[in-house]
Amino acid sequence: MSNFQLLKEKAKFVRCETLQIHKQAPETRVASSLSPIEIFVCLYYGNILSFNPKNPKDENRDRFIISKGHGSISMYPLLADLGFFDKSELKKVCQNGTFLGGIPDPIIPGYETVNGSLGHGLGVGSGMALALKAKREKQNVVVLCGDGELNEGSNWEAIMFAPQHKLDNLTLIVDYNKVSMLDFSRNIIDMSSLNQKFASFCWEVYEIADAHDVKEVYTTLQEAINKRDNKPKVVIANTIKGKGVPFLETHSLSHILSVKPEDIDNLIEEIKNAD
User: Fold this and answer.
1) Distance between CA atoms of residues 134 and 114, nearest Å
2) How many beta carbons lie within 10 A of that of residue 204, not counting itself?
3) Which terminus of the chain faces fewer neighbouring Cβ atoms within 10 Å, N or C?
4) Tens of pLDDT along 238-250?
5) CATH homologous superfamily, domain 3-273
6) Extents of the domains making up the chain
7) How far apart are the C-alpha atoms of 230 and 129, rounded to whole Å?
8) pLDDT single digits (tens) 106-147
9) What percent of the residues of the chain are helix, what percent strand, and what percent coil, each to the nearest 5?
10) Model pTM?
């Protein structure tokens, strides 16, 4: 099996497990969690990030901040599969007595920050990147945010701050799924010119045309994250919100919709059998 085939199989596995979690915990934001799966898979199973499941706070780790925390339930099966915590926890999501909630926080091994309030991940990541650079450390800082999250002004403070301090150890990945909480993003604040916006703020801009193609995702992230040219990097990843669930993929309210439990088993079989 090629490396890209392995990544593709892992993406299928994570997508199926995410739907299974949603079946038992319908309050989870499933559409938001389905769009960044290939990004997570390439970062972790593709060994782009340096991490240590046995010691999640290892000083030598890269820092990965998931600013759109509600949209990262798909990280749970991935982290369990890699050994950050026991797989039995996946059956307890959103139940009393577990650390796996509907919105993740740093009590979960593998998470760096509190992620409930949107718009803060990039500012925190910029601070981490500045501190690592001041100490002449080589670790990377990677932040994932949603496109709707970029409506928050705090992001743009960080977007101005990072180039000023030449934070080339910082990479922002935008999960550009084009759907916000209550409508298509274009009807709220149109982000169709993200490339030009970031370039005008002196960021190095990359774009992934299909962020569900593991080869394109892996190749782009590998290049961007490891580049050092005195500029922060942004990767605009074109995703589909609700990827793998047809009615969610085109719905303006996919962010807040749930999938019927009786439909999830069929969806999982379709995903497993897809090319």
Assistant:
1) 24
2) 18
3) C
4) 999 999 999 999 9
5) Thiamin diphosphate (ThDP)-binding fold, Pyr/PP domains (3.40.50.970)
6) 3-273
7) 12
8) 999 999 998 878 999 999 999 999 999 999 999 999 999 999
9) 45, 10, 45
10) 0.97
